[in-house]
Amino acid sequence: MIIFVGRSNVGKSTLIFRLTGKWVKRGKRPGVTRRPVEVNWRGKKVVDMPGFGFMSGVPKRVQERVKDEIVRFIEDNAGEIELAVLVVDGKAAPEIIDRWEKRGEIPIDVEFYGFLRELGIPVVVAVNKMDKIKNIQRTINFLAGKFGVPYGEINETFVPVSAKFGKNLFEMRKLMEKKLKEGRKKPPAGSENLEDDVGDGLLEAVE
Ligand SMILES: Nc1nc2c(ncn2[C@@H]2O[C@H](COP(=O)(O)OP(=O)(O)OP(=O)(O)O)[C@@H](O)[C@H]2O)c(=O)[nH]1
Ligand SMILES: [Mg+2]
C-alpha cells in the first residue's frame, strides 16, 4: 500500500490522478477528499487520504477529527504501508511552517513527517505546485532543515513536482520506485551514503 498524505488542497488527488490515470475527486477548495479512497496502481493499492489542516466550511472540531482518523488509519495499516508520499504546497509551506513555529506549535507537516518515519515508513516528500515557486532548491533546503532530513538524503527524499502541469512526474515515480525497492530497512546513521557511493564507484570501474 502507498498512501498520499498532506494538508488540504496541496494537490494529493491531482497527483494521484496524474500518476495512476485513475479518476479521483479533485477540487479547488480545501476539504474535497473526506475519506481514504483506494485506487489500483501496478498491482498496489494507492490511497488518497483526506487532507489535514484547514478545510473551507468545516468546523475546527471536525478538522481535528479528520486528523485523528488519518493518524488512526496510518497506525492501523502501518504494517501494510510500504511508502508514504507526503505532499506539500511548495509555495505555501514555508510561510505556514514559520507561522506555526512563531506560535510555539509544531507545524503539522513536520509532525507528520516525524510520525511516518517513527513508524518506519519510507517517505517521499512531493513538493507540489513547483510552477509557483521561484527558488525550488531554497524551498527544498528549508523544508529539509525543518523536517530534520540530513543534507546527504535531500535528493532521495524531496522531489519538486507540478501535478497540475504534469511536471517532473517521471522523477517522482523514479524516487517512489527507489524507495519501494529499498523497503523499510535503514542502514546505521552516518554510513548510508558512503556505502552506496562506494558501490557505484565499483560498478563504474567494471563498466
Ligand atoms: N498551480 C498549481 N495548482 C495545483 C497543482 N496541483 C494541484 N493544484 C490545484 O490545487 C487544488 C487542489 O487540488 P486537489 O488535488 O484536490 O488537492 P488535495 O490535496 O487532494 O485536497 P483535499 O482533498 O481537499 O485534501 C486544485 O485546484 C488543483 O488544480 C500544481 O502543481 N500547481
Ligand atoms: Mg483530495
Q: Helix and strand layout, with pairings?
A:
Elements: E1 2-6, H1 12-20, E2 37-41, E3 44-48, H2 60-77, E4 83-89, H3 93-102, H4 108-118, E5 123-128, H5 136-147, E6 158-160, H6 169-182, H7 192-206
Parallel strand pairs: 1-3, 1-4, 4-5, 5-6
Antiparallel strand pairs: 2-3
The structure holds guanosine-5'-triphosphate and magnesium ion.
Explain what this protein looks like in three dimensions.
The protein is α/β, with parallel strands linked by helices and 207 residues long. The protein has a single domain, classed as P-loop containing nucleotide triphosphate hydrolases (Rossmann fold, 3-Layer(aba) Sandwich). 43% of the residues lie in helices and 15% in strands. It is built from seven helices and six strands. It has a six-stranded mixed β-sheet, sandwiched between helices. Strand 2 and strand 3 form a beta hairpin. The longest helix has 18 residues, at 60-77. The radius of gyration is 17 Å and the shape is globular. Mean pLDDT is 90; it is low at 194-207. The structure holds guanosine-5'-triphosphate (GTP) and magnesium ion. Magnesium ion is lined by residues 12-13, 32-33, 48. GO terms for molecular function: GTP binding; metal ion binding. This is Probable GTP-binding protein EngB. Residues 1-182 form the EngB-type G domain. One of its GO terms (biological process) is cell division.
